[in-house]
Fold each of these.
Amino acid sequence: MMYFVPRHLKLLLSSKEMARRSLVRFSGISIVTSSSLMYSQKSLLWFYSSKPNHHEYQQGNRDQDLYSLSLSIGSPARVQKLIASQSDPLLAKEIFDIASRVANFRVSYSSYHILIIKLARSKHFSLVEDLLVRLKSEPYAVSTSLFSGLIKVYEEADMPEKALKTFYTMLEFKCQPLPKHLNRILEVLVSHRNYVRPAFDLFKNAHRHRVSPNTTSYNILMRAFCLNDNLSIAYSLFNQMFKRDVLPDIESYRILMQGLCRKSQVNRAVDLLEDMLNKGFVPDALSYTTLLNALCRKNKLREAYKLLCRMKVKGCNPDILHYNTVILGFCREGCAADACKILMDMPSNGCLPNLVSYRTLVGGLCDQGLFDDAKNYIQEMISKGFSPHFSISHALINGFCNVGKIKEACEVVEQLLEHGDAPHLDSWAVVLPMICEENDKSRIESSFKEILRVEITPNTRLIHAAAGLEEYVIRKAEAKSRRP
């Protein structure tokens, strides 16, 4: 008897050769392939399409073959392995459907689980819904891992509504959600501003479904409300934790401190830190960074420095970020001299200044006109292998030129050249006119010798500017020679 091959069978036999072999191995069915595409009755039934009206295939024969197939199909475990081996989720779904139509054969729960996750990952969400409906009519105990997988897929697909629906689907399956499922769904929801309120409603009603929110649950919502400018709700949630015997952690305090600092309520944030310390918590480095930055921005420099000194006593050694935050705060408020003291204290506290420390300090000193001190720190940072940013070196060179200290400006240029750094063209444009205005020819020549004494290589970038600088000096000299 000759049969026409359904479309999905052709796909299985050609591009899915491995699937065909697996199917043949576990079913024990022989397949005959020839130019006329002859198949045994058992072979046909495995791949029988959903169209029942093939004129060659009568109902009686079909029933007989279904009965024969039920005797040779093998175990549900073999069907499961075949479904799991398919890289094409739609092909896996066809195999699942064909096996489901075999009389007296029940597809295993594992096959449902594997296929649902396969389809979800490939974004065939309508097929996922259909399979869940079918699964609900089966007498299987559904595991929470199935829904954990679905929540993860919906999170990656950025589908908060489906993630929320999954929680209630678990209840329909009489599958008890755990706090980790609640928290995962809350994370998905609060990542969207429009779903913060639905997340809050789910959180408030969780106990009705015998799910107890834990510290992580509170932290998720507190952070969401802080970021959405609802600090009062975040504070209320924080206080509820103590009433409901949920112990806050370091992150709970930090989230609320960050929210308070964002609202410029620095004093309340400091009070919260004290409460945290009194309860035996050791604040982490990020909590201190938040407070130090807020105190400096509110011009509470003394309090910031005291907090910096207390950190080590309270069990958290200040790192380079903490020091640089305070140094920047002092420099920004015109207290660069005090920032120098902080930098000098760093090595004794086990923290060495870095490039940012020096650049911030030199910039602050230049802003206050303390050019000699700035020059000393430039020398120090260069001796330690750090390169000054051209904006910092230019500020120092320009500052010396503005107060008439040409020699010092040239010394800074010389230091940069020796270190292999090319002064910015703006720096040359400031220095050279000052030199050319001098009436003492010997001093001009001496200054140029100091600048150009260092051998310049093509890698310094200065070589590209040399021709322009030469022309500039020549023009200045020629202009002076024309004067009466």
Amino acid sequence: MNAEDPKYQAGEPLPLESLPSDVIISSDTRRENRIPPGQSRTRKWPILDAHGTPQIDRASWKLDVFGLVDQPYSLSLAEFQTLPRVKVYADFHCVTRWSRLGNMWEGVSTRTLLERAGVKPEARYVVCHAYDRGWTTNLPLADFLSNDALLADLHDGQPISADHGGPVRGMVPLLYAWKSAKWIRGIELSAYDKPGYWERGGYHNHGDPWTEERFSGWFS
């Protein structure tokens, strides 16, 4: 381990057969080649964002679940952390062409959060809202409900730092990392798509790293 970077990966990713039975294994980690086209592996965890790290008071942090749901609700950080927990082993692919392999995320499954709210039949999309100056990202409901998707407060057994999106960040491993909203504060269910900050700026509306959905057609 690099003493100056506690997130530096000195070794190789954990073999899947060594993982505890309660860990959800993201499907992409089972690929023979885990690096998508146009990507290269990093052993670090680079810090990237649109506006810099916002100042978030953990005591006043809350998550709102709203829109096309039967029962909108809000959670404090303490309430969030009492919900049933999951661990997800997944790779992490940034649209800026780096991939960090073998991350262990822990938090609350997106399925648990939306089951609590009750999703209305007409809901088709999710908009994730962040504390970062109103930043949002959009994704299909089906992707948000992938079995390896969660809202995470731990990474590799440690609390997620503010620079990396803590106290709680989204994590949707099968899409490029900008779809995994840092500093998440809201989950909105919608009948129609609502492109977010980077999508309006020219990034692809979906973001599949294996088909290099990096930019919209006019921007590529």
Amino acid sequence: MSTNNVLFDVPGPKARARYGVYSALTLLAGLAGLAVLYLGFNRTLGEGAPSLFSAQAWAPNPDGQWTQAKWAPFLDPATWTDYVIPGLQNTLTAALFAAVLALVFGLVFGIGRLSEHAWIRIPAGAVVEFFRGIPLLMLIFFTMALPIAINQLLPVFGMPPMTPGTFQVSALAAVVTGLTLYNGSVLAEVFRAGINAVPKGQSEAAYSIGMNRTKTMWLILIPQAVSSMMPAIVAQLVVLLKDSALGYIVAFPELLRSFTLIATRYSNVIPAAIICAVIYIIINVALSRVAIMLERRNSRRGRPAGVTAEPGDGPVPAVSVAEPGPSAGGVSKEP
């Protein structure tokens, strides 16, 4: 049996015919869905609308979302300097701070869950599971409401409430805190799984040469775990960047909120949504390419002898090469 057919059987004539019918139906359903979206946002669909087979139904309706006037605001530099670029800067700022803090949070609590001491392992596991189980939007709301909660608890302990304005949480701090706690808890599990995936022989070899558990963790296990789990870490950071769009709920002026203001001002919801989606796609595809590059770099590890080894690769076996021609004494000499 050919190796190409082990996991996949070549379809017969009837199966190919079925696949062709399924593909055609899927294509028609997709085209129908796009047509409904176009006509719906063009306001030429429904009762009182022109016939679907007329040119009037498919021509851009002045009251719809597809006219040139709806796209014109994005040709104005003021739209980009006043709305898009500031919103993009705020999104990247929140994502950058949250990414750094989430990595630190995940590394600390991921290692804490692997501790031999129960007084460290159990609280670390409780924190990770708690923040993993709470929706991100609720974490953002709870952070914004923290001053109100503190003011309500102070009288319980016999303390006077704080004066207004003494302690406030900004929208940026609320978004960064929510992203850090939620994504950091997910990254903690990623780090824990990566450390557990390192072969036990690595730690046993470290113990045999006199390393303690702390040195083994930081010098042997963590570098290998981070290297192997880097694609998963970058993928979670992509999720973190997309989740920063929830900041518009607490009036954080991020990218999605900026496009919401544009859509409200110019009544061009669909063009604004399309441009916003394109920007998010470009950023996320760039980050995904970084993950793919790191995955390919890791896949090149452990190459055979004769290939230049990268740092961290295993030892390359020596190859005996005989010199051409006999040496003195009639015996071939090897280096």
